[in-house]
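User: Hi! I have a protein structure encoded as tokens and I'd like to know what sequence might fold into it. I'm fairly new to this, so please keep things simple.
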């Protein structure tokens, strides 16, 4: 059995679907919107949106490429997901600072943005906590 074919037994489906497929696509869409349709995001801050697009591209690459390349190494998965958690917390903190007190003026895009930050953060924290993960007595690449 190859290392890549061992992944389904180690990484539960919900994590694989989100981290390998759904979020990389969402990150690419976010990157596209930030660069090519900035008025939909925040029209006054084009340079910041370009930099944010770079972060989204990194997310998409790490999830779609790096996690597949390290399919059997749970340590790599945990390290990347922890980095994404740190990024999520910083994004939520920044959004909270920007939107605090303006709840009545939020656009639907603001709600989607907060949902796309908070929902995946919960999933990532569950992954790091081992929710749904198989436990084995041996230590090594998997644990």
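Assistant: Happy to help. Inverse folding works backwards from shape to sequence: for each of the 143 positions I chose a residue that suits the local structure. Here it is:
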């Amino acid at each position: 059995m190859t290392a890549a074919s061992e992944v389904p037994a180690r990484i539960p489906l919900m994590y694989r679907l989100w981290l390998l497929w759904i979020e990389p696509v969402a990150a690419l869409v976010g990157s596209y919107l930030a660069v090519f349709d900035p008025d939909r995001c925040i029209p006054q801050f084009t340079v910041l949106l370009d930099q944010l697009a770079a972060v989204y591209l990194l997310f998409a690459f790490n999830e779609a490429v790096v996690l597949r390349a390290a399919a059997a190494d749970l340590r790599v998965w945990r390290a990347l997901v922890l980095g994404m958690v740190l990024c999520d917390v910083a994004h939520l903190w920044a959004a909270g600072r920007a939107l605090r007190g303006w709840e009545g003026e939020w656009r639907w895009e603001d709600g989607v943005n907060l949902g796309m930050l908070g929902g995946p953060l919960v999933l990532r924290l569950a992954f790091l906590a081992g929710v749904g993960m198989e436990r084995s007595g041996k230590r090594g690449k998997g644990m």
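A useful reference point when you look it over: Residues 99 and 105 are 9 Å apart (CA to CA). Feel free to ask if any position seems puzzling.
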